Predict the structure.
Amino acid sequence: MSSPPLSFTRSQELFARAQEIVAGGTTQGKAPNTLIPGEYPIYAARGQGAHLWDVDNNRFLDWILAYGIIVLGYCDPDVDAAAIQEIRQGFAFPLTRPVQNELAELLVEVIPCAEMVHFFKSGSDATTAAVRVARIITGRQKIVRWGYNGWHDWCCIREPGIPRHVREDVLTFRYNDLDSLEEVLKQQRDQVACVIMMPLEIEQPQPGFLAGVKELAHQYGALFILDEMRSGFHVALGGAQEYYQVIPDLATFSKAISNGYAISVLAGRREMMSALSQTYVSSTFYTNSIAMAAAVATINKLRQEEVIPHLWRIGQGLLDGLSRLAEEVGVEAETVGLPPMPFLVFTDADPDVRETARAVFYTEVARQGILLHPNHHWFVSHAHTEQDLAHTLEVSEAAFRLVKKKLGQGYRASSVSKVAVTASTRLDR
Ligand SMILES: Cc1ncc(COP(=O)(O)O)c(C=O)c1O
């Protein structure tokens, strides 16, 4: 028996009103209609640790964590206290607050490629600055990129509104396929300013792949840039570059760095970072220091409390547990991703079966109060406990059994709303 749907009356009222006054109803990339329509909450009331409550007072154990910006848990008292202290003494001056230097010192210490850093507010700002620096340094125009790098013109995943000449300057390659990268670099000889990529999404790099990308980029005179928005402060304190021991020329960070406060970072070798002075990057809120204070508190806590080993332990438990349960129950599914960023994919050869399994599974766990994203990898936080893990596995087992039963009864997802696959789950863009 599937669980009864949760009530989202208040969420739906607010969403209906928002559609009149907010274009799209909500921030586009985070729209609830990219999940399973009607099965996920839309408006949050509050959060604590690994849990959030929606405006209809449903309580959820959250493995989405605002797409990875929450790494310690919601409302972490130490981070919030640091932010509040910054607010009380003033955080928006025509001058810079000293906490900027404190944060920069920490980042230079923990990020392998960072001899210097520069701060921004959004991830897209930082990746765009990285690409600008690469163009200045090399005097070249073309970009080779892989993964999601933000929404600015050079990396927007949708065509409308983007000048054709901007798109023509950006090329891609296949993950874990060095030949496909070399082919692009050869074709564009002497024109490519940088290769910018997420170090991984749900597929892990094969041994030598990231080092191979770096080598090829350099061989063809391009910079090698890692976009560590998600991997940074999750996979290791210094990001995937520390974990895989492949040090890029430049790297970008955000998300988990500040447990929810808005800040992003461009980090890199001194002579490259110095090129920023040849261009102009600015924003009204760049000196706003609340997030800088939050980031200092977050990084200190990540270090002192052994947070990252905890993310690995709990994430590994989730990956192992889900694989075992899928096999025991007899559902074609596979767990993927590194433990701090785990995910589950349904793998039956028949796309209708896959789609049905996914819709049934994610609907059932959501109805049981567990937020697992159906089309984006998940995140683990320090606030997730062994009990949260055990509870998630218990609910997942029941959801797998329901999948098995419904598939056995001939039920297919065409009779329910299909789960949209967003661009962020596609491996080649
Ligand atoms: C890997 C990666 N790069 C860049 C970005 C863009 O960051 P923002 O949405 O803050 O502009 C994101 C956002 O999710 C991301 O995951």
Q: What stands out?
A: Residues 415-429 have pLDDT under 50 and may be disordered. The longest strand covers residues 192-197.
